Amino acid sequence: MRHHRGLLVLLFIFLALSLVYNASLPLFEAPDEMNHFRYAVWLQAEKRLPHMAADLSEMGHEVFQPPLYYVLMTPITAVIDTYDLWEVAPVNPHLLDGAGINGNYHTRAEAFPYQNTALAVHLVRLLSSLLACVTIVGTYTLARLIVPTGALLAAALVALNPMFIFISAAVNNDTLVIALSTLTLWWLIRLLYKTAVSPWQFVVLGILWGLAALSKASALALGGVIFLGLLLAAWQARSSRRLLMSGLFMMLGVMVTAGWWYGRSWLLYGDPLALAPALNANRHWLRESPLALGELFQFAQGLLNSYWGSFGYGGLQGPTLFYTLVNLLVLLALMGVLLWLVQNVRKKPLPPAVIAVILLVVWNGLIFVSLLRWMSLMKATNQGRLLFPGLGALAVLVALGTTALSLGKRNWLGSGLVVLLGLGAALAPFLLIQPAYARPNAITNVDAIPNSAQVRFGEHIELLGYERSQTAVSPGESLQVDLYWRTDAALPENYLIALHTLDASGEVVSRLDALPLNGRYATPAWEPHYPFKDSHILPPISETAVPGQGHIIVTLYPWGAPAQALPVTVAEAPVGEIHTLTPLKIASAETAVYDPLFTTNAIFAEKFKLVGFDAPPDLLPDQTYPITLYWQSLQPDGLDYTVFVHLINSEGQVVAQADSPPQNNRFPTSIWDSGEQIADTHLLLTPAELPSETYEIFAGLYDANTGQRLTAVAANGTAVLDNSILLTTITVPQP
């Protein structure tokens, strides 16, 4: 123990970190965690092995997995009542369709002290962490055979890998197959260093391989490394008898351990690997056709980052710089391995360390090729954790490579990599995982919610109010909208929130259909009478948006069924299926400057200037006479005023008029900014009987609520009669 204090400290650090990850991650948020746990619960309850077709619906898609990991879990599921399995963490039924993430957040059922299913899951996670300790120790002992001075470094590269800690703090059979694969490699390479090996040691090798194959079928690829190792050992000894005997005894061990499982699959499904029923169990991930080679390698790029850290169904990742530096340092280390091999491969006889390194390289290569094949068939498989059966082997290679490249006694390259991984592992729970899955804070004072509303969607969902980040937005700009929700009952349906921005013409110029809190708090997870804030950032406004007064509207509809939007009531009055949340000014992309045909420069209440107007020279009966007013906002007060344009006959009577807010309410005065210029067209519909005489056209502004006109001053500063500006006189000719 005194000689391995560093390893003990490392194991303590790993277990401490894994407990933090364990507590930080919501139940069933790790990849396939729910189905892995269901397997163990079913196994303990039924006391038999599953049939992939008959038991698929009850067990979930992990039904095709070998049983060893789940058997280890059954002592925990046997003594803890998991009656609340389906209620403890609401599962998103549309996860496979891309509806956000799975476990959403930490529910009250998961509150400490843990009970029932929550307790069982956290204990099984702890079991996984203990199995991961086997991987760390196995990597350490494996490295002592090949690069003794780098043994602790190799173990640290495993123990401080954030993704390894994450998956080891979850319910997942990866932890067992990684541990057993590492032990199998260690035992195999240990035999290479021996000159005399007893038959039982090859039996142990087969047993270890068989146990790995009983954990996950991907461990069958170990056979290629094992047979290559036995072949190289026999070649070194120039003994074909050794190859035959070692192979036979090894196969005896693996057949006794795992042969029954694969034989059972052969009998039940006509295939020892049961590939067809396994693909059927995962048909929701199955591709319509395998990926072409170019597409496959593009898809495989996701492995580069997810090998070091991609957390939960949402694929939470840290800064790009972290992954870039780690991948760069590992690449340099692998170049060091190549250098070391060039220096040692010519030695005769071939040193055991060289054979060991070749086997480690081959093992990682086999895993990668096998995963490429699997990725070509299945979606969502570009996950670095699927390469982890070779994690210990890669760590040893990196330790060897950095040692080979070190110029002095200090391995700065390896130390830097450990520090980088350690920082990532320590910070990820607090900077990535916990914030991403934080339960939304309850609004303690509902009366303080801004823009209070009495809006109800369906029977149970209340919109208590809203906030917007700005009152005006330009094309190309985004907008944040905060919604305040509450439900008075549990919601089994998964609803999407549709936030759409309409421009002044009523066209949708920005739309966002999203789950609440970016999927972290889907409606099935809402707690009754728990008000909370839900923030959304709308996409940039379209460049083609018509300037003026737009609106933000909101609807709620079931996942995949936008035509079935919930009915909306405002103050208990039905208003359809759409709620207009708030008006919003959409500014012009460019500052408008107009040059009217006729100038007036009249001032209205020191708030607005009528710069001028355009009007046709002729006026005829029974026609639409367009007149465009050009306004400039001086000191707007944020109120809405109505523009009037009147056609007056010689007797002072109004014979035609066009009263409306500017641009027919598309650009009301309440959204005008100081200095802004607005073109405002009004259409005078002249009567069919319009006597031939001279008419005058007047314009002005008034408050529609009171009828009070804004005081008008002509360009020369004199007051204007009736606060009405004379624009032009025009004569209707004789018919």
Plain-language structure description:
By secondary structure, the protein is α+β, with helices and mostly antiparallel strands. 39% of the residues lie in helices and 18% in strands. The protein contains 18 helices and 20 strands. The protein has helices spanning 5-24, 33-46, 56-59, 68-79, 116-146, 151-159, 162-168, 174-192, 199-213, 222-237, 240-269, 275-281, 293-299, 302-306, 320-344, 352-377, 391-405, 412-436; strands at 455-457, 461-468, 472-473, 479-487, 495-502, 508-514, 532-538, 548-558, 568-570, 573-576, 579-586, 598-604, 608-614, 624-633, 642-648, 654-660, 677-685, 694-702, 712-713, 725-731. The strands form four sheets. The chain has a six-stranded antiparallel β-sheet, with no helix packed on it. A five-stranded mixed β-sheet has the order 3-11-8-5-6, with no helix packed on it. A five-stranded antiparallel β-sheet has the order 17-14-13-12-19, with no helix packed on it. A hairpin with a 2-residue loop joins strand 9 and strand 10. The protein is elongated and about 125 Å long. It starts with a helix and ends with a strand. 42% of the residues are buried. The model has no long low-confidence stretch (mean pLDDT 92).
Which helices and strands appear, and what pairs or packs with what?
Elements: H1 5-24, H2 33-46, H3 56-59, H4 68-79, H5 116-146, H6 151-159, H7 162-168, H8 174-192, H9 199-213, H10 222-237, H11 240-269, H12 275-281, H13 293-299, H14 302-306, H15 320-344, H16 352-377, H17 391-405, H18 412-436, E1 455-457, E2 461-468, E3 472-473, E4 479-487, E5 495-502, E6 508-514, E7 532-538, E8 548-558, E9 568-570, E10 573-576, E11 579-586, E12 598-604, E13 608-614, E14 624-633, E15 642-648, E16 654-660, E17 677-685, E18 694-702, E19 712-713, E20 725-731
Helix pairs in contact: 1-5, 1-6, 1-18, 2-4, 5-6, 5-7, 5-8, 5-17, 6-17, 8-9, 8-10, 9-11, 10-11, 10-16, 15-17, 15-18, 16-17
